[in-house]
Amino acid sequence: MLNVSVVNKRSNSSHSDVRRDVHNDVHGEVMRRFIKHNQRYTSQRRLIVTVLSDSDRPLMIQQMLKRSSNTKKVLAQSSLYRNLVVLEDVGVVQRIFSTDDVARYELNEDILGHHHHLVCSKCGDIRDVRIPESLESSLDTALAKIAKSSGFQLDQHRLDLIGRCGKCR
Ligand SMILES: [Zn+2]
Ligand SMILES: [Zn+2]
């Protein structure tokens, strides 16, 4: 991976040291993907990426609109869906499904960095959570063993923690 850094706005937590493979220059990396796909990285698309990149969780459409209203530029609802499709197509954004069937969006993990999700089974809210690097490697080792015994080549893992969030406990 190019341009790897452990510094990112989303990492301003006690876990700032555990991120891996995070793109410091998010917009630069996104721009490269747009160029590769012959698409234009318009100001609306840039705003969507900024809103997602500043968030500590995958966002629903309404949350994205609300958060963009705090910025100088306004995210147009009419074009948000269309732009999200393009952002998915060029490999920048992915859709995350929760327990409530409402689509949420986040930047692809190879831009955002490896992380896990705390999923609330009551309200459907999802929060990003990062596991210390040492625990990640133990996890990778254990999972690789399990995969190998099934004749499976492990490339990556996803792990959701399901439960109830602070509001729903
Ligand atoms: Zn909840
Ligand atoms: Zn992990």
Task: Explain the overall architecture.
- This protein is of the alpha+beta class and 169 residues long.
- The chain has one domain (4-163): Winged helix-like DNA-binding domain superfamily/Winged helix DNA-binding domain (Arc Repressor Mutant, subunit A).
- It contains six helices and seven strands; from the N terminus they run ββααααββαββαβ.
- A hairpin with a 5-residue loop joins strand 3 and strand 4.
- The longest helix is centred in the C-terminal third of the chain and has 17 residues, at 133-149.
- The chain is globular, with a radius of gyration of 17 Å.
- One zinc ion binds at residues 114, 116, 131, 136, 139, 157, 159.
What is this entry, summarized?
Helix content is 38%, strand content 16%. It is of the alpha+beta class and 169 residues long.
Taking pLDDT < 50 over at least 5 consecutive residues as the criterion, the unreliable ranges are 1-20
Distance between the termini: 40 Å
**Number of β-strand runs:** 7
Task: Indicate the proportion of strand residues.
Answer: 15-25%
Overall average residue pLDDT: 87
Q: Which topology does CATH recognise?
A: Arc Repressor Mutant, subunit A
Instruction: Give the cofactors and ligands.
Output: zinc ion
Provide the spatial order of strands within the biggest beta sheet: 6-5-7
**DSSP summary: helix tally:** 6
What's the quaternary structure here? single chain
Indicate the CATH architecture: Orthogonal Bundle
Mass-distribution shape? globular
CATH homologous superfamily heading: Winged helix-like DNA-binding domain superfamily/Winged helix DNA-binding domain
Summarize the amount of helix as a percent range. Answer: 25-40%
What is the H-and-E element order?
Answer: EEHHHHEEHEEHE
- CATH class, anyone? Mainly Alpha
Question: What profile does the largest beta sheet have?
Answer: 3 strands, mixed
Structural class: alpha+beta
How many separate domains make up the residues?
1
